[in-house]
Description:
Strand order of the largest sheet: 1-2-3-4-6-5
Order of helices and strands: EEEEHHEEEEEEEEHH
Structural class: alpha+beta
Radius of gyration: 18 Å
Number of strands: 12
Distance between the termini: 32 Å
Number of domains: 1
Largest sheet: 6 strands, antiparallel
Shape: globular
Strand content: 25-35%
Low-confidence stretches: none
Amino acid sequence: MKQQTQQPVFKEEKITSPIDESTNCYRVYTEPETEDYFLCLSTGFMTTSYYKKDSNQLKNVMNQNPKLVQQLQWEDKKTNLVWFPVFLNMGDLGMIYPEGNEHQWFWKYAKVVDIPEEKRNDYPVPGKSGEFYETKLDVENATTYIHTDFLGACFDMGIIKDEDGDVINHLFNRG
């Protein structure tokens, strides 16, 4: 008889942000327990239970991250978790990402836009001969927000409706 594996169920709880002590911070976890995810909506910083200072998981992800993200990382001295600015890719809704340098940085929100048919040949799908993308992330016309206005970018993206909105359903349970 084959043993069935229980699929993890995502759950969430609001917590106090260790970064700015706001209450717009979420811990998303699973039952059965796997990995915890943390997102502070006030700052736009995130971490997971695997991103402990000096862990291999943190070293791997930081080596893949842009220089700005590496420079802006923040360590929670109580938990040894390292937080960094999120790249929030929400598919058809677009993407929120940090840009700038460690002394002057900001959030960008790029929408997904249609590629005009006459330009689609400029956007081939890698490995698929004769196929072309129909949409693209419009980074050239991205909206800019000061680094303390991550929530503003989230509002404009449409993933939250008010400061107490249920953002996690949009972020983790899209369907």
